[in-house]
Amino acid sequence: MRRARQSLRQIFAVPVLLAVLTAIGLLSALTGDGWRDALSWLTLAAPLLAVIWAMGFRQD
Hints:
The chain is mostly helical. It is built from two helices and no strands. This is DUF4175 domain-containing protein.
């Protein structure tokens, strides 16, 4: 099965988004308590959720 060629923007969109979310999560965890802790938990869970989602589409 042939796949359509993707641009660099399409290839790196999700990794860049995950990197930004991780940076926001780490900074919010370091800078405060309360709502910032909740924000850090949500944003730091994004890469884990992405891995779980991708494993669902994995073909053996």
